[in-house]
Known about the structure:
This protein has 586 residues and is α+β, with helices and mostly antiparallel strands. 18% of the residues lie in helices and 27% in strands.
Amino acid sequence: MIRTAALALLLATAPTAVYAQQAAPSFGRYAPAQKYKEVIVTSEYVTMRDGVRIAASVVRPAIDGKPAPGKFPVIWTGSLDIRSPYGKGGKIPEDGTFGASRGYGIGSIVGHGYALVTIARRGSGASFGKRRGYQDRNEAYDAYEINEWAARQPWSSGKTAIYGCSNTGEAVLHAMTVLPPSLKAVFSGCFNYNKYDGFTRGGMIANWGTGPTRTLEEDMKSTPVDGDTGLKLLRAAAEEHQGASNLFDLMVSMPYRDSFSPLTFSRFWGEGSVSSYKPQLDSSQVATYIMGGWFDDFRQQGLIAQANLPNRPKVIIGPWTHCSTKDYDQLVGSEVLRFFDQHLKRIDTGTTTDAPIHYFTVNAPAGTGWRSASTFPLPGTQARTLHLGGGGLLAAKPGKTANTAFTVTREGKCPGNDGAAAQPCHIAGNGASWRMNIAADTEITGHPLADLWIVSDAPDEHVFAYLEDVAPDGKVTVVTEGRLKASIRKTGTAPWDTLGLPWHRGFQEDAQSLKSGEPARLQFAMLPASWVFKKGHKLQITVTGWDWRERQAPTTKSTIRILNDAKHRSTVQLPYAPTSYRVAYD
């Protein structure tokens, strides 16, 4: 797939000295020597305000098998298990990491003089309690107590940070909403700022919904706390977990943004969304670093979060999928350490003065892939409108009616993983396509916008629009995509900054069924991308009525007509990047 080529390109274009220590630290250039070569790992229960016991593992620097003297800043995460990335402790390997658990530099960070705490969130792993929702207020209040418990420990400096990605990344932002006084910095990747807009993007349940529900037998495989040799405590905790809200069932119970769920006895899209607590976050002094990937389904949510959070959050977006930085762990780890050293140890690492946004442009000229920006969308971006005409993608309005019809088909599967890392692909015969030739290398960076007029013989449609790169050999690669359930097409103004993108309130009272033969306008954004279409390739737009990642696709047979006539102009708007940019590496 194209992301494999993108990974290879990045490795080829990144300077070999990128990880060498520099006199003046900068993006990706921060590699101080580790002070400690050993760690010690312990675990225990921490009792919450309501008596629920939360399991926690603690990793501390060690010398000759004993805890190193002194007080250390604490970095912690709220996971589903207390398994430590440092295993049972001991010496840190020569490469400075603990095998596959090295993600984001956490596998070496204790060696730089930090304590690391991993908790199993309420209702998970060895922790007691029952999970009511998914990042509900119970978990947020637990995070406050865990954070302040960590700050009070005799081995703690009193300063804390939280990290996480995916569900643990969203838990990081929820912890911020309760304003723990000892919290100084957070690193959060691939999360929802608003759950309805992220989990059910466009009003659809697609590649999300498989949450942390575990059977009793699965829970019994969790890591127990020290001293629970007979696993009696683990079993008691696992028995309490049974009957927790199933994430997919929770999502199905709330088809609209204002739906009330009987599983949580709340309008949980609101309760469980970070965006609902914007007033609290506006008063936060916590430094924030957001990670996204151009092949992750939540990359738009990260950029919207950056636009709404205070204190000039930093952003890194690379050519990776959901939380999987793979070959870039060292680069991301360098940034994590640089960020935490700045805000927890007050070391001047330059992270407060360099550009807030660093992103990678796929297919960029060698040595220019990593770039920096002050804002997103990029200053100087040119929005150009293209018409879905009878002769392809047209810069001018078609001179005559150019309607295109297709029968919705729901067959096929794309290569790769299911679930969080699932990727779209072009399925031949699915939908309709329009293309244009690329006469010179052309960079698209930003959010493409779809503005479609459709007619359908069904009461509702799931409409998808894909921006695709067609190589000279005919291979089609999806660059990005957007989606919208036709019945929630009514646009509105969000109570937060949406980067100027179309937003759909999605309340039950907003729902509008399609009427046979009557045109309906669908306006929606595709996910952001940064991609160079090479000379000789073709840029293609494909519109379909189905995506293989859907989990609740309509079953009715239908035909969709894409209109393009004097009264109904179906278009896409593409963000052509400015000709000048700042390269992150020189």
